[in-house]
Design goal:
Helix 1 links the parallel strand 1 and strand 2. About 55% of the residues lie in helices and about 10% in strands. Helix 14 packs across helix 15. About 15% of the residues are buried. It has 4 domains: about 120 residues, Tetrapyrrole methylase, C-terminal domain (Methyltransferase, Cobalt-precorrin-4 Transmethylase, Domain 2, 2-Layer Sandwich), CATH 3.30.950.10; about 90 residues, MazG-like (Helix Hairpins), CATH 1.10.287.1080; about 55 residues, MazG-like (Helix Hairpins), CATH 1.10.287; about 45 residues. It is an alpha/beta fold. It has a 6-stranded mixed β-sheet with strand order 1-2-3-6-4-5, with helices on both faces. The N and C termini lie far apart (about 65 Å).
């Protein structure tokens, strides 16, 4: 195996790996990852790149194999063709071909069993995608459009792809969600590449930063801190964020200061209210929340100027968002779904009127209401 480079965990016999590959009739050129079965069976996802084949050694039995299957299914499909090698290097060596989802059902599993996991494909790894984007940005051989992009010029595309992802999620179209998440990832990797070229930071810096942050802010998962429910998690999160800012020498922004002001207005209002509620700035029951809406509505009616009425309408909307929050509903999503229903029903009115040879401008409100009720019944 002179052309083969092992990326392996300590304690795993390379001689056993060589014997397994011989039994498989494989003489790979390049790299192969050698993984301890016990370690992988306790993982929540595979930590190694699917761009390379892997050998998973020392599978002790069905329980270990089941843990391996669960971890690998985060990256590999259920029907992915894999190969179990039993007793490599002996006369009893046996190779078993089966789908990934069946590995824990093999009757031949034992301490000398290994799992051969073929490469999923170069196109499936983040590293390959980074190579593609770096090539697109190369001054000599890259794409003229990609080479010209900056953080500022890509801003509109980042926003556009985010909204398209949200729309796909709202539609429940998982094929479209997958595609749009890819487009969103493109924007992230492009920004990372531009920053790398400028010497600001790299993708590794991004990943290290977010991993460190998430682990630090979940001591109830990765440490021994105990929290009381979701509320306890959120309060602890805010406390840890404040500690991080202080240790980094950042100026204290206050509880609301770190909320992006570019958020959609409904989302911004609800986030402000959520954060204030975490420290007790909230009513203890829902009746005052309802009363506040009636109070704001009355102030809209008694406003003495257009400017004052606009202000009071804003207060009314803010009060309604608070009621929505009390019912644990996302205001932005609720209004978006209502807007989508309105669009579908109105399009039904337009389509039906067109089929009847009628113009909306010639129809009365009562005529359109009849079609509106028809549209509601079709939902």
């Amino acid at each position: 195996m002179t052309n083969l480079h092992y990326n392996h965990q300590p304690g795993i016999s390379l001689a056993t790996a060589d014997a397994a590959l011989k039994a498989l009739g494989i003489n790979p050129i390049g790299a192969i990852t050698l993984v301890d079965a016990s370690t992988l069976s306790q993982a929540f996802a595979p930590w190694f790149s699917p761009s390379y084949p892997a050998l998973i050694a020392r599978i002790s039995g069905a329980e270990t194999a089941a843990g391996i299957r669960r971890a690998l299914r985060v990256t590999y499909p259920a029907e992915f063709a894999v190969r179990l090698v039993h007793n490599p290097g002996t006369q009893q060596a046996l190779v078993e071909d089966l789908p990934l989802d069946a590995i824990d059902r093999s009757p031949r599993l034992g301490a000398d069993s290994l799992l051969y996991l073929p490469a999923l494909g170069a196109e499936t790894s983040l590293e390959f995608f980074q190579e593609v984007i770096a090539h697109l940005r190369d001054p000599q051989t890259g794409c003229p459009w990609d080479k010209e992009q900056t953080h500022a010029s890509l801003r509109q595309y980042l926003l556009e792809e985010t909204y398209e992802t949200l729309e796909a999620l709202d539609d429940g179209n998982m094929s479209k969600v997958r595609e749009e998440l890819g487009d969103l990832l493109l924007q992230i990797v492009l920004h990372a590449q531009i920053a790398t070229e400028a010497g600001a930071f790299t993708m590794a810096d991004i990943l290290q930063g977010i991993n460190t942050k998430i682990i630090h802010r979940h001591p109830h998962v990765f440490g021994d801190v105990e929290v009381a429910g979701v509320g306890g998690v959120l309060r602890n999160w805010e406390r840890l964020k404040a500690e991080e800012r202080a240790s980094n020498g950042e100026k204290e922004k206050g509880l609301l200061g770190s909320v992006p002001r570019i958020l959609a207005a409904l989302a911004l209002a609800q986030e402000y209210q959520d954060r204030a509620a975490r420290v007790g700035f909230d009513w203890s029951e829902i009746d005052p929340v309802r009363a506040k809406i009636l109070e704001e509505l009355q102030e809209v009616d008694t406003a003495e100027s257009e400017a004052e009425r606009a202000k009071e309408l804003g207060d009314l909307l803010f009060a309604v968002v608070n009621l929505v929050r009390w019912y644990k509903v996302d205001a932005e999503t609720a209004l978006r779904e209502t807007s989508n229903r309105f669009r579908r029903r109105f399009e039904y009115i337009e389509t039906t009127a067109r089929k009847q040879g009628r113009s909306l401008s010639d129809m009365t409100l009562a005529d359109m209401d009849v079609l509106w009720e028809e549209a509601k019944k079709l939902e």
